Amino acid sequence: MKRILATACSLALCCLAAPIQQGHAAKTEPMSDQQFIDFIAQTDMLEAHLGQLAADHAGSQEVKDYAQMLVTDHTADYQNLTALAAKDGFTVPKGLDAAHNQIIQPFEKLKGAAFDARYIHTMIEGHTQAIQIFTKESMDAQNADLKSDASATLPTLHKHLDGAKDLEKKPAKK
Hints:
The protein is mostly helical. The protein contains seven helices and no strands.
């Protein structure tokens, strides 16, 4: 059960970039509450999955520790989202969609410093985009619980972004 949730959370993180890449620009096109829930779930699953990959593929212990924090946080977020959705009548994806699965594939082939560099870059990009979307939805979501959840999640997303930026500043270990 833990592995499924962690995988779901990992996948969700990867989903952060997909809606924007697919023309779902957060600044111009409003999301429905269901679309926002889908985005959160996909992002949580993506992040958890990538974090699990980091346990075996990362070269740096600091990256492995950071990734474990993301697995823990995004798994908890996915569980909270599932409870919120059940209470308010929304559906939560149970697995990654094709776009997010494609984000994971290149990571499966990387090891060591190459994995670390790509992972850190992806975390910075993904969390920057997530913060933009969560900020917008904290003001624009129709559902009060979802709006509140978006606001409450922002500090964690900032913590993740700051952590990735800190890792980026450290020299790569060979």
